[in-house]
């Protein structure tokens, strides 16, 4: 199993970014996927989740209405569109897979929101 995040960067408040998580080594279309983030000095928190077919999505209250999770099962990729970014969104963002009771994480991608 391999998960590789990309798309992070530095933006000003109100800006946007689109994160990608490219997956390999398993049947991607069979599994729900999640995005987490970890801010400096804080624990890892769930940001968004999507079912295997993309039909159901859930979001943390702090990002509802601003972030959108999606997936392309043909490309084995899950996305996180982040709009109207705020300084408190600054964190390392990770995608996560739970497969056969084992947690898999990518290496993360840094998002910095600052003026």
Describe this structure in words.
The protein has strands at about 1-5, 10, 15-25, 35-40, 45-50, 55-60, 65-70, 75-80, 90-100, 100-105, 110-115. The protein has about 120 residues and is mainly β. The strands form two sheets. Strands 2, 4, 5, 6, 9, 10 and 11 form a seven-stranded mixed β-sheet that branches. A four-stranded antiparallel β-sheet has the order 1-3-8-7, with no helix packed on it.
SSE topology sketch:
Elements (H helix, E strand, L loop, with lengths): L1 E5 L2 E3 L5 E8 L8 E6 L5 E7 L6 E3 L7 E6 L4 E6 L8 E9 L2 E4 L3 E5 L2
Task: Identify the notable features of this structure and list them briefly.
four-stranded antiparallel beta sheet; 115 residues; mainly beta
Which stretches are poorly predicted, pLDDT < 50 over at least 5 residues? none
So how many helices? 0
Q: Please state the average pLDDT score.
A: 97
Rounded radius of gyration (Å): 13 Å
Class by SSE composition: mainly beta
Which descriptor suits the 3D outline? globular
Helix content: under 10%
**How many beta-strand runs?**
11
Strand content: over 45%
How many angstroms does the end-to-end distance come to? 37 Å
**In this structure, how is the largest beta sheet organized?**
7 strands, mixed
Secondary-structure element string: EEEEEEEEEEE
């Amino acid at each position: 199993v391999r998960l590789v995040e990309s798309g992070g960067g530095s933006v000003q408040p109100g800006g946007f970014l689109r994160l990608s998580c490219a997956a390999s080594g398993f049947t991607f279309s069979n599994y729900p996927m999640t995005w987490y983030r970890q801010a400096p000095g804080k624990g890892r928190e769930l940001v968004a989740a999507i079912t295997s077919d993309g039909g159901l999505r859930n979001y943390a209250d702090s990002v509802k209405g601003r972030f959108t999770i999606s997936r392309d099962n043909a490309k084995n990729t899950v996305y996180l569109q982040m709009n109207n970014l705020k300084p408190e969104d600054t964190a390392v963002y990770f995608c996560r897979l739970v497969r056969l009771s084992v947690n898999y994480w990518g290496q993360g991608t840094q998002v910095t929101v600052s003026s």
